[in-house]
């Protein structure tokens, strides 16, 4: 999505917790959109304080946020042994549900 938006002329802010993946993806988007089309921000969006600071940094850097594509993945895979013994959704605790939302 970031590659297509940058190629279409949008200024793209990309946010991820994984800096390596983020840098590689942002480079691909910037290659499609041209120099200065993409800015990468490392952030754990489950940290409300850090997420707010990153949003302010995006606005300060790019001027505004016109479109938001939320693809943050927080899910039941955070449960120990989830891939070996997957939990049913009704077995998930409230804290995980809140993090997912």
Could you explain the architecture of this structure?
With 101 residues, the chain is mostly helical. The protein folds into two domains: 2-70; 72-101, no CATH class. 43% of the residues lie in helices and 10% in strands. It has helices spanning 2-7, 19-33, 48-62, 94-100, and strands at 12-16, 38-42. Strands 1-2 form a two-stranded parallel sheet. The two termini are 22 Å apart.
In short:
By secondary structure, the protein is mostly helical. The chain has four helices and two strands; from the N terminus they run αβαβαα.
Radius of gyration: 16 Å
Residues in helices, as a percent range: 40-55%
Poorly predicted sequence stretches spanning 5 or more consecutive residues: none
* Oligomer status: single chain
| Strand fraction | 5-15%
Number of domains: 2
Number of helices: 4
Arithmetic mean pLDDT: 88
The ordered string of helix (H) and strand (E) elements is HEHEHH
Kindly, what is the distance between the CA atoms of the first and last residues, rounded to a whole number of angstroms? 22 Å
Please describe the biggest sheet, giving its number of strands, its sense, and whether it closes into a barrel: 2 strands, parallel
Give the overall form: elongated
Query: Number of DSSP strands?
Result: 2
Strand arrangement, largest sheet? 1-2
Structure class: mainly alpha
């Amino acid at each position: 999505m970031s590659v297509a938006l940058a190629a279409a002329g949008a200024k793209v802010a990309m946010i991820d917790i994984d800096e390596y993946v983020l840098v590689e993806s942002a480079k691909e988007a910037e290659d499609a959109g041209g120099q200065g089309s993409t800015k990468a921000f490392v952030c754990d969006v489950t940290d409300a304080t850090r997420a707010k600071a990153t949003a302010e940094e995006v606005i300060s850097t790019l001027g505004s946020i016109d479109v938001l594509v939320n693809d943050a993945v927080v899910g039941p895979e955070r449960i120990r042994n989830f891939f070996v013994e997957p939990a049913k959704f009704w077995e998930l605790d409230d804290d995980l549900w809140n993090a997912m939302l």
